[in-house]
Amino acid sequence: MKAAYLEDSQIHVGDLPDPEPKKGQVLVRTHRCGLCASDAHFLCSGHNMVAKSKEFGGPYANVDLNKRIVMGHEFVGEIVDYGPGSRRSVKVGAKVTATPVMRQGASHGVIGYVNELPGGFGEYMLLDEDFMLEVPAGLDDDLAALIEPLAVGLEHARSGEPQPGEVPLVVGCGAIGLGVIAGLKLKGIGPIIAADFDAKRRDIALQMGADVVIDPRELSPYEPIPSLGMRRPNLVYECVGKPGLLNQIINGVGFGARIVMGGFCLEPEQLYVPSAQMKRLKINFACGEEQQDMALALRAIADGAIDVRPWLGARIGLSGVGEALKNMTDPSSPVRTVVDPRRM
Protein backbone atom coordinates (compact mmCIF):
# COMPACT_ATOMS: atom_id res chain seq x y z
CA MET A 1 0.00 0.00 0.00
CA LYS A 2 1.00 3.63 -0.39
CA ALA A 3 1.30 5.62 2.82
CA ALA A 4 2.67 8.77 4.39
CA TYR A 5 4.89 7.50 7.18
CA LEU A 6 7.12 8.90 9.91
CA GLU A 7 10.81 8.01 9.70
CA ASP A 8 13.82 9.92 11.05
CA SER A 9 11.54 12.72 12.31
CA GLN A 10 10.29 13.38 8.78
CA ILE A 11 7.18 12.44 6.83
CA HIS A 12 7.89 10.37 3.73
CA VAL A 13 5.57 8.88 1.13
CA GLY A 14 6.15 5.43 -0.28
CA ASP A 15 5.11 1.79 -0.48
CA LEU A 16 4.65 -0.37 2.62
CA PRO A 17 3.34 -3.92 3.02
CA ASP A 18 -0.44 -4.27 3.16
CA PRO A 19 -1.57 -5.12 6.71
CA GLU A 20 -3.05 -8.58 7.21
CA PRO A 21 -5.97 -9.03 9.63
CA LYS A 22 -5.95 -11.64 12.39
CA LYS A 23 -8.89 -12.97 14.37
CA GLY A 24 -11.09 -10.12 15.57
CA GLN A 25 -9.44 -7.65 13.18
CA VAL A 26 -10.89 -5.92 10.14
CA LEU A 27 -9.00 -4.84 7.02
CA VAL A 28 -10.28 -1.43 5.93
CA ARG A 29 -9.50 0.70 2.92
CA THR A 30 -9.21 4.26 4.20
CA HIS A 31 -11.34 6.95 2.54
CA ARG A 32 -10.42 9.94 4.72
CA CYS A 33 -8.32 10.72 7.77
CA GLY A 34 -8.10 13.96 9.72
CA LEU A 35 -4.84 15.58 10.79
CA CYS A 36 -4.74 15.95 14.58
CA ALA A 37 -2.54 18.15 16.75
CA SER A 38 -1.35 14.93 18.42
CA ASP A 39 0.16 13.90 15.09
CA ALA A 40 1.93 17.25 14.80
CA HIS A 41 3.24 16.88 18.38
CA PHE A 42 4.48 13.39 17.58
CA LEU A 43 6.25 14.61 14.46
CA CYS A 44 8.10 17.30 16.44
CA SER A 45 8.45 15.67 19.88
CA GLY A 46 8.07 11.94 19.29
CA HIS A 47 11.26 10.96 21.14
CA ASN A 48 10.21 12.93 24.21
CA MET A 49 6.69 11.51 24.12
CA VAL A 50 7.97 7.94 23.89
CA ALA A 51 10.49 8.51 26.70
CA LYS A 52 7.86 10.03 29.00
CA SER A 53 5.44 7.19 28.27
CA LYS A 54 8.11 4.65 29.20
CA GLU A 55 8.93 6.55 32.40
CA PHE A 56 5.41 7.34 33.61
CA GLY A 57 3.21 5.02 31.58
CA GLY A 58 1.38 6.12 28.47
CA PRO A 59 0.13 5.20 25.02
CA TYR A 60 3.48 5.66 23.25
CA ALA A 61 5.65 3.38 25.40
CA ASN A 62 5.84 0.61 22.78
CA VAL A 63 6.58 2.82 19.78
CA ASP A 64 9.92 2.14 18.08
CA LEU A 65 10.93 5.36 16.36
CA ASN A 66 13.71 3.53 14.54
CA LYS A 67 11.00 1.85 12.48
CA ARG A 68 8.47 3.41 10.15
CA ILE A 69 5.13 4.37 11.64
CA VAL A 70 1.94 5.39 9.83
CA MET A 71 0.00 7.91 11.91
CA GLY A 72 -3.64 8.98 11.61
CA HIS A 73 -6.44 8.11 14.05
CA GLU A 74 -9.44 10.14 12.78
CA PHE A 75 -10.65 7.97 9.94
CA VAL A 76 -13.45 6.51 7.89
CA GLY A 77 -13.11 3.68 5.43
CA GLU A 78 -14.76 0.63 3.89
CA ILE A 79 -14.45 -2.97 5.03
CA VAL A 80 -12.36 -5.10 2.67
CA ASP A 81 -12.11 -8.32 4.69
CA TYR A 82 -11.97 -9.87 8.15
CA GLY A 83 -9.33 -11.98 9.83
CA PRO A 84 -9.98 -15.73 10.19
CA GLY A 85 -12.49 -16.59 12.92
CA SER A 86 -13.88 -13.06 13.26
CA ARG A 87 -17.57 -12.44 13.96
CA ARG A 88 -18.01 -10.39 10.75
CA SER A 89 -20.71 -8.28 12.39
CA VAL A 90 -20.74 -5.62 9.63
CA LYS A 91 -20.91 -6.58 5.97
CA VAL A 92 -17.93 -6.28 3.65
CA GLY A 93 -18.14 -3.03 1.67
CA ALA A 94 -19.82 -1.09 4.48
CA LYS A 95 -18.43 2.23 5.60
CA VAL A 96 -17.03 2.26 9.15
CA THR A 97 -15.08 4.22 11.72
CA ALA A 98 -13.80 3.10 15.11
CA THR A 99 -12.42 4.14 18.44
CA PRO A 100 -8.72 4.03 17.45
CA VAL A 101 -7.60 1.23 19.75
CA MET A 102 -6.72 -2.40 19.12
CA ARG A 103 -6.55 -5.23 21.63
CA GLN A 104 -3.03 -6.61 21.93
CA GLY A 105 -3.15 -9.51 24.35
CA ALA A 106 -3.99 -8.15 27.80
CA SER A 107 -3.41 -4.55 26.73
CA HIS A 108 -4.53 -2.13 24.03
CA GLY A 109 -2.55 -0.29 21.38
CA VAL A 110 -3.49 3.05 19.85
CA ILE A 111 -3.95 2.86 16.08
CA GLY A 112 -1.50 5.21 14.40
CA TYR A 113 0.91 5.12 17.35
CA VAL A 114 1.99 1.49 17.22
CA ASN A 115 4.37 0.35 14.49
CA GLU A 116 2.27 -2.74 13.71
CA LEU A 117 -1.02 -0.77 13.65
CA PRO A 118 -0.87 1.62 10.68
CA GLY A 119 -3.21 4.58 10.87
CA GLY A 120 -5.24 6.48 8.34
CA PHE A 121 -2.35 8.11 6.48
CA GLY A 122 -2.14 4.87 4.51
CA GLU A 123 -4.39 3.18 1.97
CA TYR A 124 -5.21 0.30 4.30
CA MET A 125 -5.48 -0.16 8.06
CA LEU A 126 -6.62 -2.68 10.66
CA LEU A 127 -9.48 -2.11 13.08
CA ASP A 128 -10.68 -4.07 16.09
CA GLU A 129 -14.19 -5.31 15.29
CA ASP A 130 -15.27 -4.74 18.90
CA PHE A 131 -14.60 -0.99 18.58
CA MET A 132 -15.95 -0.53 15.07
CA LEU A 133 -19.06 1.51 14.22
CA GLU A 134 -20.95 1.37 10.93
CA VAL A 135 -21.29 4.75 9.23
CA PRO A 136 -24.38 5.56 7.13
CA ALA A 137 -23.54 5.10 3.46
CA GLY A 138 -24.83 8.57 2.60
CA LEU A 139 -22.73 10.44 5.16
CA ASP A 140 -20.02 12.51 3.46
CA ASP A 141 -16.54 11.06 4.05
CA ASP A 142 -15.09 14.43 5.08
CA LEU A 143 -17.71 14.75 7.82
CA ALA A 144 -17.34 11.12 8.88
CA ALA A 145 -13.63 11.70 9.47
CA LEU A 146 -14.61 14.24 12.14
CA ILE A 147 -16.51 11.72 14.27
CA GLU A 148 -13.46 10.82 16.37
CA PRO A 149 -12.27 14.38 17.17
CA LEU A 150 -15.84 15.42 17.98
CA ALA A 151 -16.12 12.39 20.28
CA VAL A 152 -13.10 13.56 22.26
CA GLY A 153 -14.77 16.92 22.89
CA LEU A 154 -18.02 15.21 23.86
CA GLU A 155 -16.13 13.06 26.39
CA HIS A 156 -14.47 16.14 27.88
CA ALA A 157 -17.80 17.95 28.13
CA ARG A 158 -19.36 14.93 29.81
CA SER A 159 -16.48 14.45 32.26
CA GLY A 160 -17.08 17.93 33.70
CA GLU A 161 -20.53 16.77 34.87
CA PRO A 162 -22.15 20.05 33.80
CA GLN A 163 -25.45 20.97 35.41
CA PRO A 164 -28.30 23.20 34.16
CA GLY A 165 -27.78 26.81 35.13
CA GLU A 166 -23.99 26.60 35.28
CA VAL A 167 -21.77 28.95 33.30
CA PRO A 168 -19.09 26.94 31.50
CA LEU A 169 -15.99 28.52 29.99
CA VAL A 170 -14.06 26.79 27.19
CA VAL A 171 -10.46 28.00 26.91
CA GLY A 172 -9.10 27.26 23.46
CA CYS A 173 -11.23 26.75 20.35
CA GLY A 174 -9.39 24.06 18.47
CA ALA A 175 -11.14 20.79 17.68
CA ILE A 176 -11.32 19.68 21.32
CA GLY A 177 -12.67 23.00 22.58
CA LEU A 178 -15.19 23.23 19.75
CA GLY A 179 -16.30 19.69 20.51
CA VAL A 180 -16.77 20.62 24.16
CA ILE A 181 -18.92 23.59 23.15
CA ALA A 182 -21.01 21.36 20.88
CA GLY A 183 -21.38 18.78 23.63
CA LEU A 184 -22.49 21.37 26.18
CA LYS A 185 -24.97 22.84 23.71
CA LEU A 186 -26.34 19.37 22.99
CA LYS A 187 -26.95 18.92 26.73
CA GLY A 188 -28.73 22.28 26.98
CA ILE A 189 -26.04 23.74 29.26
CA GLY A 190 -25.40 27.47 29.12
CA PRO A 191 -24.68 30.25 28.72
CA ILE A 192 -21.39 29.05 27.23
CA ILE A 193 -18.31 31.29 27.16
CA ALA A 194 -15.47 30.58 24.72
CA ALA A 195 -12.02 32.20 24.82
CA ASP A 196 -9.44 32.15 22.04
CA PHE A 197 -6.89 34.57 20.61
CA ASP A 198 -7.88 33.85 17.00
CA ALA A 199 -10.91 35.67 15.59
CA LYS A 200 -11.77 32.87 13.13
CA ARG A 201 -11.81 30.29 15.90
CA ARG A 202 -14.06 32.55 17.96
CA ASP A 203 -16.44 32.80 15.01
CA ILE A 204 -16.58 29.00 14.71
CA ALA A 205 -17.17 28.77 18.47
CA LEU A 206 -20.32 30.86 17.99
CA GLN A 207 -21.44 28.56 15.19
CA MET A 208 -20.95 25.57 17.51
CA GLY A 209 -23.16 27.10 20.19
CA ALA A 210 -21.12 29.50 22.31
CA ASP A 211 -23.13 32.43 23.67
CA VAL A 212 -20.20 34.76 24.41
CA VAL A 213 -16.73 34.78 22.84
CA ILE A 214 -13.76 36.56 24.40
CA ASP A 215 -10.34 37.63 23.21
CA PRO A 216 -8.27 37.12 26.40
CA ARG A 217 -6.06 40.07 25.42
CA GLU A 218 -9.06 42.37 25.83
CA LEU A 219 -10.99 40.82 28.74
CA SER A 220 -10.27 38.19 31.37
CA PRO A 221 -12.64 35.26 30.75
CA TYR A 222 -12.49 34.27 34.43
CA GLU A 223 -13.97 37.46 35.86
CA PRO A 224 -17.67 38.46 35.98
CA ILE A 225 -18.93 38.97 32.41
CA PRO A 226 -20.92 42.19 31.85
CA SER A 227 -23.00 40.75 29.00
CA LEU A 228 -24.07 37.89 31.31
CA GLY A 229 -25.29 40.12 34.11
CA MET A 230 -21.89 39.94 35.83
CA ARG A 231 -22.06 36.17 36.19
CA ARG A 232 -18.70 34.45 36.10
CA PRO A 233 -17.79 30.95 34.88
CA ASN A 234 -17.82 28.19 37.47
CA LEU A 235 -16.83 25.30 35.16
CA VAL A 236 -13.69 25.80 33.06
CA TYR A 237 -12.52 23.48 30.29
CA GLU A 238 -8.81 23.88 29.51
CA CYS A 239 -8.42 22.81 25.87
CA VAL A 240 -5.05 24.30 24.96
CA GLY A 241 -2.29 22.26 26.63
CA LYS A 242 0.24 25.00 27.28
CA PRO A 243 2.37 25.14 30.46
CA GLY A 244 1.26 27.82 32.89
CA LEU A 245 -2.34 27.88 31.75
CA LEU A 246 -3.69 25.65 34.53
CA ASN A 247 -2.07 27.88 37.13
CA GLN A 248 -3.54 30.93 35.39
CA ILE A 249 -7.01 29.37 35.55
CA ILE A 250 -6.58 28.48 39.23
CA ASN A 251 -5.62 32.05 40.04
CA GLY A 252 -8.41 33.52 37.91
CA VAL A 253 -11.52 31.53 38.85
CA GLY A 254 -13.78 32.08 41.83
CA PHE A 255 -14.50 29.99 44.92
CA GLY A 256 -15.76 26.44 44.32
CA ALA A 257 -15.08 26.36 40.56
CA ARG A 258 -14.41 23.13 38.70
CA ILE A 259 -11.67 22.72 36.10
CA VAL A 260 -11.47 20.06 33.40
CA MET A 261 -8.00 19.53 31.96
CA GLY A 262 -8.39 18.43 28.36
CA GLY A 263 -5.33 20.04 26.75
CA PHE A 264 -2.42 17.66 26.19
CA CYS A 265 0.52 19.51 27.76
CA LEU A 266 3.88 17.85 27.06
CA GLU A 267 5.85 19.99 29.51
CA PRO A 268 5.86 20.04 33.33
CA GLU A 269 3.21 22.26 34.93
CA GLN A 270 3.93 24.21 38.11
CA LEU A 271 1.06 25.03 40.45
CA TYR A 272 0.73 27.13 43.56
CA VAL A 273 -1.35 24.58 45.42
CA PRO A 274 -2.62 26.77 48.30
CA SER A 275 -4.46 28.99 45.80
CA ALA A 276 -6.49 25.99 44.61
CA GLN A 277 -6.97 24.74 48.16
CA MET A 278 -8.23 28.03 49.58
CA LYS A 279 -10.75 28.31 46.74
CA ARG A 280 -11.90 24.69 47.22
CA LEU A 281 -11.38 23.96 43.52
CA LYS A 282 -11.94 20.60 41.88
CA ILE A 283 -9.68 19.59 38.97
CA ASN A 284 -10.56 16.72 36.67
CA PHE A 285 -8.22 15.31 34.03
CA ALA A 286 -10.09 14.26 30.89
CA CYS A 287 -8.67 11.88 28.30
CA GLY A 288 -9.74 10.22 25.07
CA GLU A 289 -13.20 9.20 23.98
CA GLU A 290 -15.11 6.10 24.98
CA GLN A 291 -17.37 4.04 22.78
CA GLN A 292 -20.47 5.91 23.98
CA ASP A 293 -18.90 9.20 22.86
CA MET A 294 -18.09 7.80 19.42
CA ALA A 295 -21.66 6.57 19.03
CA LEU A 296 -23.06 9.96 20.09
CA ALA A 297 -20.71 11.85 17.75
CA LEU A 298 -21.69 9.62 14.84
CA ARG A 299 -25.42 10.13 15.47
CA ALA A 300 -25.06 13.87 16.02
CA ILE A 301 -23.15 14.41 12.77
CA ALA A 302 -25.34 12.04 10.75
CA ASP A 303 -28.65 13.61 11.84
CA GLY A 304 -27.36 17.20 11.75
CA ALA A 305 -27.65 17.86 15.49
CA ILE A 306 -24.02 19.03 15.40
CA ASP A 307 -22.78 20.73 12.23
CA VAL A 308 -19.02 20.23 11.93
CA ARG A 309 -18.72 21.63 8.41
CA PRO A 310 -17.11 24.86 9.71
CA TRP A 311 -14.17 22.73 10.90
CA LEU A 312 -13.24 21.59 7.42
CA GLY A 313 -10.38 23.10 5.48
CA ALA A 314 -8.44 21.55 2.63
CA ARG A 315 -8.61 17.97 1.39
CA ILE A 316 -5.15 16.71 0.48
CA GLY A 317 -3.43 13.60 -0.80
CA LEU A 318 -0.55 11.71 0.80
CA SER A 319 2.10 14.04 -0.61
CA GLY A 320 0.64 16.95 1.35
CA VAL A 321 0.67 15.34 4.80
CA GLY A 322 4.13 16.47 5.89
CA GLU A 323 3.61 20.12 5.04
CA ALA A 324 0.09 20.17 6.49
CA LEU A 325 1.32 18.77 9.83
CA LYS A 326 4.02 21.43 10.04
CA ASN A 327 1.43 24.16 9.38
CA MET A 328 -0.87 23.04 12.19
CA THR A 329 0.91 25.29 14.69
CA ASP A 330 -0.36 28.31 12.75
CA PRO A 331 -3.57 29.49 14.47
CA SER A 332 -4.96 30.56 11.09
CA SER A 333 -4.85 26.96 9.84
CA PRO A 334 -8.21 25.18 9.50
CA VAL A 335 -9.54 23.20 12.44
CA ARG A 336 -9.22 20.07 10.33
CA THR A 337 -7.41 19.21 7.14
CA VAL A 338 -8.47 15.80 5.84
CA VAL A 339 -6.35 13.34 3.88
CA ASP A 340 -7.62 11.10 1.12
CA PRO A 341 -4.92 8.37 1.14
CA ARG A 342 -6.15 7.07 -2.21
CA ARG A 343 -4.68 10.21 -3.76
CA MET A 344 -1.05 11.31 -4.02
Major pleated sheet: 7 strands, mixed
Enumerate the spans where pLDDT stays under 50 for 5 or more consecutive residues.
none
Q: Give the strand tally.
A: 17
Instruction: Tally the helices.
Output: 9
- What number of domains? 2
- Mean pLDDT level: 95
Structural class from helices and strands? alpha/beta
Distance between the termini: 12 Å
Oligomer: single chain
CATH topology of the largest domain: Quinone Oxidoreductase, Chain A, domain 1
CATH superfamily name of the largest domain?
Answer: Medium-chain alcohol dehydrogenases, catalytic domain
How much helix, percentage-wise, in residues?
A: 25-40%
| Percent in strands | 15-25%
Radius of gyration: 20 Å
Explain this structure.
This protein is α/β, with parallel strands linked by helices and 344 residues long. It has helices spanning 37-56, 141-144, 147-159, 175-186, 199-208, 245-252, 273-278, 291-302, 321-326, and strands spanning 2-7, 10-15, 25-34, 75-82, 95-98, 101-104, 107-110, 124-128, 132-134, 168-171, 193-195, 212-214, 235-238, 258-261, 282-285, 312-316, 336-339. It folds into two domains: 2-146 and 308-339, Medium-chain alcohol dehydrogenases, catalytic domain (Quinone Oxidoreductase, Chain A, domain 1); 153-285, NAD(P)-binding Rossmann-like Domain (Rossmann fold, 3-Layer(aba) Sandwich), CATH 3.40.50.720. It has nine helices and 17 strands. The strands form four sheets. Strands 3, 4, 5, 8, 9, 16 and 17 form a seven-stranded mixed beta sheet that branches. A six-stranded parallel beta sheet has the order 12-11-10-13-14-15, with helices on both faces. The longest helix is centred in the N-terminal third of the chain and has 20 residues, at 37-56. It is globular, with a radius of gyration of 20 Å. The mean pLDDT is 95.
